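Saturday, quiet lab. Running sequence design on the structure tokens for the scaffold JK sent over.
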């Protein structure tokens, strides 16, 4: 049983237009996004969002353009005010905060990493990285010291005296991450933070974030339109469409058990062998009387298993977590997991 969520969103609605409260009545009576726009000239941005984000986890909000994901993340620090609902951080409804409490939350509890880097061009890299301390009124020495510390953590030691225009896009985004970390906030909001980067640099940034997360255990809300990125980063995945949640849960479970044709189409082209882990397809309660063909780690991906097995479907492996056996993996079960659920159903039909 999880502890109280770090962030809890309940019954959240956002309607854009001149009279959102009036439009809200139509939505509560069942009017959808298309009809609301055509008949009432209002846009339904978010519809009855209910999501819990646990401390120390990465929650990824994903969807296509217009799905509401960026609108949602901006409700967490009240850059956007909702039409209805609650946003609770550490058990307190931030929608009830006055200006001073809201400023304190943005300054000390939440930090944000933007898609466009948002670095100050006239400040050095170290000064940009330590910007949160500057806003709090710390001395320049303290600002630069914090900046140096976190620049080193993101692999930019030696660049402290440079200016943003002297860095590549990937390096600038590392400065953005260092700035968020230097604030020492519990929560990091990352809105399409890597989407402007080239594919190889983007992969490096994803790896960097996961490496930092192993040590820092931040509560991270990450926005993306890329499913591969979402599946790689997420502890908890929330998929939006037209402002509502289509499915949410552990990414491996969503991939194996999509509950909607929209999700089925979304995951149909994913390289399942690269994304799925042994833990998702192993037999947790299984016993095996014969001799195992070897040991595999519970977090190995299936691509690795295919490689070491040579594609032999008659092999069986003991699944380990550290020194403890946690399951049994038969290669035939692995092969079944590589076939999307809707493909299996259509084949049977």
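Result came back. Writing it out in full:
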């Amino acid at each position: 049983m999880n502890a109280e969520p770090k962030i809890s969103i309940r019954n959240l609605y956002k309607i854009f237009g001149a009279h959102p409260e009036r439009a809200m009545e139509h939505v509560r009576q069942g009017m959808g996004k298309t009809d609301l726009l055509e008949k009432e000239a209002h846009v339904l941005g978010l519809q009855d969002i209910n999501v819990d984000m646990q401390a120390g986890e990465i929650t990824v909000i994903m969807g296509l353009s217009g799905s509401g994901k960026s609108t949602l993340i901006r409700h967490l620090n009240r850059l956007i005010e909702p039409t209805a609902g609650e946003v609770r951080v550490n058990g307190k409804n931030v929608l009830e905060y006055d200006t001073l409490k809201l400023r304190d939350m943005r300054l000390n509890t939440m930090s944000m990493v933007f898609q466009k880097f948002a670095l100050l061009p006239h400040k050095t890299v170290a000064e940009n990285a330590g910007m949160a301390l500057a806003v709090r009124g710390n001395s320049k020495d303290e600002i630069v010291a914090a900046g140096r510390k976190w620049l080193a953590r993101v692999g930019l030691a030696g660049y402290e005296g440079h200016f943003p225009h002297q860095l590549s896009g990937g390096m600038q985004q590392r400065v953005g991450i260092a700035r968020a970390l230097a604030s020492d906030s519990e929560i990091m909001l990352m809105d399409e933070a890597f989407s402007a980067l080239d594919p190889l640099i983007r992969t490096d940034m994803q790896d960097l974030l996961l490496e930092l997360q192993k040590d820092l255990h931040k509560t991270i809300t990450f926005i993306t339109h890329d499913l591969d990125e979402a599946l790689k980063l997420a502890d908890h995945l929330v998929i939006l469409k037209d402002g509502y949640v289509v499915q949410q849960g552990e990414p491996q479970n969503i991939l194996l058990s999509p509950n909607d044709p929209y999700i089925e189409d979304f995951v149909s082209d994913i390289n399942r062998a690269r994304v799925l882990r042994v833990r998702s397809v192993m037999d947790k309660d299984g016993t095996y009387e014969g001799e195992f063909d070897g040991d595999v780690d519970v977090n190995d991906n299936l691509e690795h298993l295919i490689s070491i097995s040579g594609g032999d479907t008659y092999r069986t492996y003991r699944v380990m977590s550290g020194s403890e056996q946690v399951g049994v993996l038969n290669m035939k079960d692995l092969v079944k997991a590589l076939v999307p659920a809707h493909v299996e159903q259509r084949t049977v039909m």
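Notes for JK: The longest strand covers residues 43-53. The CA atoms of residues 273 and 303 lie 5 Å apart. Ask whether to fix the surface positions before the next round.
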